[in-house]
Design brief:
- The complex is a heterodimer of chains A (112) and B (117).
- In chain A, strand 6 (54-58) and strand 7 (61-66) form a beta hairpin.
- By secondary structure, chain A is mainly β.
- Chain A is built from no helices and 11 strands.
- The radius of gyration of chain B is 13 Å and the shape is globular.
- The model of chain B has no long low-confidence stretch (mean pLDDT 91).
- Classes of the chains: A mainly beta (112), B mainly beta (117).
- Chains A and B meet through strand 4, strand 5 and strand 9 of A and strand 9 and strand 10 of B.
């Protein structure tokens, strides 16, 4: 069973703080990892993708991947109220066009 | 780049009627498109994988005769909900992968909210 697990939250952080979102996956053959943001009533929006171990930074967002621990995380620096949303972790099992498995998402609340 | 559109954005229909939802990749070709359903406060549920020029692959528990998928071109996939019932009311979202891209990145459309009366 290929699974992606996330804490459903809500995770509450004060404005300006670092929000840390975590995700674990069960399939060791997973190759591609994604973070999506979904506002209430809207469709998911791609934030970042990561394919190799280590950190990948894009603006205020940093994705971290540790394949040995089967763990991927998303850090949001200087959190803003507009970051309040549900963050979905997604994992693809191999290259090409295999389907992606989504976690259930972590709801983030940034408190002004 | 990588823009996906859906039409309509919302639809209300009577029970027993059929509804067609279109998903288009506007600035890229998509050999593969995906259809998801999301109920309130729940996560995305993959319904089917749609491949251009071939039959869709449905997930377990999804009725292929009720949810008809046609992926007739590299930029268009359609989902038809046949004989819709109130329990089919949901948020339907499509996504597309870029043909020839080396990754599995999916780009999502804005979704279609279906309400069956």
């Amino acid at each position: 069973q290929k699974e992606v697990e996330q804490n459903s939250g809500p995770l509450s952080v004060p404005e300006g703080a670092i929000a840390s979102l975590n995700c674990t996956y069960s399939d060791r053959g997973s190759q591609s990892f994604f973070w999506y943001r979904q506002y209430s009533g809207k469709s998911p929006e791609l934030i970042m993708s990561i394919y190799s171990n280590g950190d990948k930074e894009d603006g205020r967002f940093t994705a971290q991947l540790n394949k040995a621990s089967q763990y991927v995380s998303l850090l949001i620096r200087d959190s803003q109220p507009s970051d309040s949303a549900t963050y979905l972790c997604a994992v693809a099992h191999s290259g090409g066009y295999q389907k992606v498995t989504f976690g259930t998402g972590t709801k983030l609340q940034v408190i002004p | 780049g990588a823009v996906v559109s859906q039409h309509p954005s919302w639809v209300i229909c009577k029970s027993g009627t059929s509804v067609k939802i279109e998903c288009r990749s506007l600035d890229f070709q998509a050999t593969t498109m995906f259809w998801y359903r999301q109920f309130p406060k729940q996560s995305l549920m993959l319904m089917a994988t749609s491949n251009e020029g071939s039959k869709a692959t449905y997930e377990q528990g999804v009725e292929k005769d009720k949810f008809l998928i046609n992926h007739a071109s590299l930029t268009l996939s359609t989902l038809t909900v046949t004989s819709a019932h109130p329990e089919d009311s949901s948020f339907y979202i499509c996504s597309a992968s870029i043909t020839g891209a080396p990754t599995d990145t999916q780009y999502f459309g804005p979704g279609t909210r279906l309400t069956v009366l």
